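Support case: user asked for a sample of complex input and structure output to validate their parser. Sending the pair below.
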Amino acid sequence: MVPAILLLLAIIVSAGMGAVRLSFGEVLAALLHPSAAGDAGVILFTLRLPRVLAAGLVGAGLSATGVLFQGLFRNPLADPFILGASGGAALGGAIAVFLFPSLSFAGFGAIELLAFGGSLLAMAIVWSLAKSGGHFAMENMLLAGFAVGTMLNAATAALALRQEESNPGLRILTAWLHGEVTVPSWMQLSFVAVIELVALVFALPLARQLNTLALSEEYAAQLGVRVKRLQILVVLTGSVLTALAVSLGGLIGFVGLLVPHFLRLIFGPDHFRLLPSAALSGAVFLIIADTIARTAFAPSEIPVGLLTAFLGGPAFLYLLNHRQRSSSL
Amino acid sequence: MSAILEFRNVGFSHGARNIFDNLSFSVEHGETVALVGPNGIGKTTLLKLAAGLLQPSSGEILVRGQELERWGRRQLSCAVALVPQYLEVPFAFRVEEIVAQGRVPHLGFFGGLTRADHDAVESAMEAVDILGMRKRVLSELSGGERQRVKIAIGLAQQARLMLLDEPTQHLDLGRQIELMDLLRKLVERGITIVAAVHDLALVREHCSSAILLTPHAPALRGPVQELLRADLLERAFCVARPSLERYLATETFPPRGGEPIAPPDPESKADDAGSQRRKNEPQEHRERLWRKDELLRCRGCRRYSRRPRSWHNWDND
């Protein structure tokens, strides 16, 4: 409940911030009576709101994926960026942008579809590399994620180098590689929002089973959980969420690590409670971060991915050190 | 009495390695059965087979007279509880939340705990005396407390058959005795127990019967006194007869009624003489490196030796 109210506040306040500053009341009035809003309405509905909502969707998707992958790998350091899933999604999206710009499949954009494929591929590779002798060794997971992520990002960069300067896709790709939230069309926004909501609802029962998986794979199987099926469904759902987040915001790291970690300190480790609160708080977190990114150094913007890296990197190192000392969080 | 667990000609192989081959035994309601055998012989595998986590490659396993394939997975989890060797939880779940996981096979589609589920969790925690540590995190608990948490999960499952994998491992003497007393209490509540245990003194004190797994020999099933004999243990654990008898004769395992557990073996004397001789051998002879094909290899413990010793399972005997 509290995160939901915070989310509404964050959307309204953030939508007012920018070169043309709108007060809380002005934004609220424009939202309630869109036709009477005038210039403020144009700014709000074509620029500000799509960007703010996109940041919210990206944050929600990445945080929820963080919770899912952390439960899957039984490791609080798992995150779509660290595991290379974001890198896979970016490469898939880049292939769609440059090679099949006009392709679409049953209403799904080629970008989202190939991003999903890329994310899934990256997860499959990291999964098989990280799993040794029936359990996930932390070092294997981090090393495999690092190696796969670096390779995929290099491939994406190589793809960008081969394009001509005039290619409009280049702008999108640069934004992705830096982790910049773009201003999407309302069409794209609503498409992402619907799929993301469906994926989150689908993930809720999985989150409950992740609590059982936390004991161990053997324990979960002994307690009647179909472990293989659960793991596959979590990888699929996580890949969908990652692909959607990357299609709007590119490579934004550490959100899936930071947000669930702080929520665990407040709500405890129960994945079932963590998932919805992480989605809401992740949205709030990235809306705030993105607002800072686009206003703090006005008139120029910095990519929000840089900001989360500055915040998330130290948190990651802290967690790594903490885990080495006590082996559990 | 009817069998709660029955293995009929069960075979199981892991890759190229044949772990069981034609294993048959049964466990009756209310028994406390010790599973005894050397490391790597397949005690854990046997327990996992009985819990339905592994599928036998041949033969069949019956729980309460019904083949395992005909049990639903969740239904089986309500009938058989496996208590694995280790419990490591990477997140800061509290003890009560961990014990509540034992209710998972009983829950409905939405997975919420009902009043009955909460009661089952409470009484499971009460039975193993961990109510006082319900709010604590697993990583803060000692080895003995952790074992009790694991057993509480099994109790919350409300299974009538509990399979324990080395429950006394890494416990000090007092905690071992407490744990075995706890198992006795469970038996009084009508729970059948199959436990892999290494400590033979505990087996003899607390178990009604045993299953002895010996490398490359059929598993033996019977009362503890009949199975824990020097001549059987010698081959099962690949240990020298004199050392084994010294162990069995000490306070760890005092013979009851003044009778020796097994008649002294004439071979063992000969072997003692052999070791005397070996000590007097010239130095260069002892330090010679032996090629593997010159040596005999034990099928049980996989050690090499150049002289056949009676307690090993040599390939050519």
